[in-house]
Amino acid sequence: MKYVLVTGGVVSGLGKGVTASSIGLLLQACGLRVTSIKIDPYLNTDAGTMSPFEHGEVFVLDDGGEVDLDLGNYERFLDSTLTRDNNLTTGKIYQSVIDKERKGDYLGRTVQVVPHITDAIQEWIERVANVPVDGKEGPPDVCVIELGGTIGDIESMPFIEALGQFSYKVGPGNFCLVHVSLVPVLSVVGEQKTKPTQHSVRELRSLGLTPNILACRSTKALEENVKTKLSQFCHVPEENIVTLYDVPNIWHVPLLLRDQKAHGAILKELNLLGKAVEADVTEWTERTKIYDSLQDPVRIAMVGKYTGLTDSYLSVLKALLHASVACHKKLVVEWVAASDLEEITAHETPDVHKAAWDLLKGADGILVPGGFGDRGVQGKILATKYARENQVPFLGICLGMQLAVVEFARSILGYKDANSTEFEPETSSPCVIFMPEGSTTHMGGTMRLGSRRTHFQVPDCKSAKLYGNAKYVDERHRHRYEVNPDMISEIENAGLSFVGKDGTGRRMEIVELQNHPYFVGVQFHPEFKSRPGKPSALFLGLIAAASGCLEAVLQASVKMNKVLINGMANGTAMGKFYQNGNVYSNGNGLHH
After folding, report:
1. Start and end of every Glutamine amidotransferase domain (predicted)?
2. Same domain, 274 and 142
3. Which of 66, 75, 512, 527 is catalytic?
């Protein structure tokens, strides 16, 4: 097993996650099997109870793991399926060591950070690194490890010590350290300054880790004299110093590394030059070119609670992007704070209220994502009502689906007090109720989490067609409340169809409105399985409907499914086929 460790210095937010993902993609393009581990030094056991404002979105895995959003980048770039163990936190390590101490596994010895915590970290890394994540048998070739935080952080110290021991343990030729650092340009003199990186590398070396490759973040490519200076003072060969300068979008980062032969330097450090093949990123390059060339806009109004921090909806944004690139449309996201749509805002700040409604009414499609808490709920309901009444393409995810049902019950069925018991426990018309697969009192890991199967009830509905006329689909969930099964027949009789349900028929998974261009709500989170070149089917439906080409996509999905079933999925004029909720593309995009 070979290991690539990605660390960061000087400041946080340099893009270690994207760098680690890009390295993994390049090694994969060289014919190697790759897995990933993200180390988060915080004391939380997982990211499940952390506010999106605090740490961005919570990414959900197939096994129900609630993890750092960087694992979403790993899955999207590498098209892999990770597990909760691929996200290692201080909380998990200390909990495992304390559990062993309570069971007497240490035979009365004094339990200390060194060696017990550091040994536990190394054992965890070795164990997880050997688990395949690409659906094939046998261990991967390379494990890319990202150490969260910045070198010098107190909370990272046990991990740095453990990784220093680990690099010695696995030996030269099996461990490569890529240090991501900042080379700022001072506007006063316009000169690239190397001192911050020098200090960062010095700190790293003093802690027992020596970088093999420097990945320097800067506004422009490093000048040759700057590279020479860094090489001299950081003891890294010039050919192993690469620049991660500003690019239009993160799809360029793997190409940036490829052009500077970063993968060659890594392969050389890991003694893999003989095993690897020439990096083939043809499809990735073509898709990036398409992305860069898009001109025709499609406007999607994102009506949410956490619009102040876009990372709160990172996977939703990526899924929209994947779908828009497939439809050859330039994605324009209009951020609408749900509370700004409410009447109380009209009285307090009328200009803000008007601006929010202008954005909503100017959009080609409306998306109401998931969320927790009652702030902005009424605004989301108003946005949903506007989409329903004005034939605007709509996708509601998790809470977005639940509120679509609440709005329908209020407006069409006449239940003025219809609500979710999450927000109004005593409502006489409970459209959404707590369903017993979790606890209402304990927050962490108590929800309906991970991959669950949805069975289609109506074969010719839009959702089933988008999924290639599949009989069922597996998607990831993260919720506690669900549509009240006792109200289903009344709601369906009024025109809102529950076209997808779980195996018991009691949990409503997909809802569609009849006689509407595209009005779909889903209890699950399809964004978590969207990939570049393999957009989520339901996001593709939203973008296609907003772009006026939904019928072409529906016909293509059914056609491609037939091709796949017949075992002849080797490309068509549209270059796509569908499988388990994703549209697979050969990079040519969707033409209509």
Report:
1. 309-543
2. yes
3. 527
- Structural domains in the chain (count): 2
Q: What distance in Å separates the CA atoms of residue 267 and residue 438, rounded to the nearest whole number?
A: 46
Token reading at 137: 């048998």
Predicted confidence pLDDT, tens digits, the chain (592 residues): 999 999 999 998 899 999 999 999 999 999 999 999 999 999 999 998 888 777 789 999 999 999 999 999 999 999 999 999 999 999 999 999 999 999 999 998 999 999 999 999 999 999 999 999 999 999 999 999 999 999 999 999 999 999 999 999 999 999 999 999 999 998 777 899 999 999 999 999 999 999 999 999 999 999 999 999 999 999 999 999 999 999 999 999 999 999 999 999 999 999 999 999 999 999 999 999 999 999 999 999 999 987 777 888 999 999 999 999 999 999 999 999 999 999 999 999 999 999 999 999 999 999 999 988 888 899 999 999 999 999 999 999 999 999 999 999 999 999 999 999 999 999 999 999 997 664 455 555 568 899 999 999 998 899 999 999 999 999 999 999 999 999 999 999 999 999 999 999 999 999 999 899 999 999 999 999 999 989 999 999 999 999 999 999 998 887 766 554 444 334 333 344 444 445 444 444 444 3
DSSP string, 125-184: HHHHHTS--SS-SS--SEEEEEE-S-TT-GGGHHHHHHHHHHHHHH-TTSEEEEEEEE--
The residue out of 242, 271, 288 marking a domain boundary is 288
The residue range of the domain holding 197 is 2-288
Specify if 588 maps to a domain.
no
Q: Could you give the CA distance from residue 28 to residue 221 in angstroms, rounded to a whole number?
A: 25
Q: Which of 234, 398, 431, 549 is catalytic?
A: 398
Cα within 13 Å of Cα(1), Cβ side:
22
Asked whether 334 and 363 are in contact (CB, 8 A), the reply is yes
CA distance 267 to 265: 6
Asked whether residue 580 is domain-assigned, the answer is no
Tell me whether residue 525 is one of the annotated catalytic residues: yes
Of the residues 252, 322, 525, 549, only one is catalytic, namely 525
| 455 assigned to active site | no
Active site includes 143? no
Residues in the chain: 592
The first and second tokens of residue 546, run together, are 């907003």
pTM of the model: 0.92
Phi/psi of residue 218, each to 5°? -155, 170
Question: Residues 392, 465: one domain?
Answer: yes
Of 18, 35, 13, the residue nearest 178 (C-alpha): 18
Helical segments of 432-575, H only: 462-466, 488-493, 537-547, 550-565
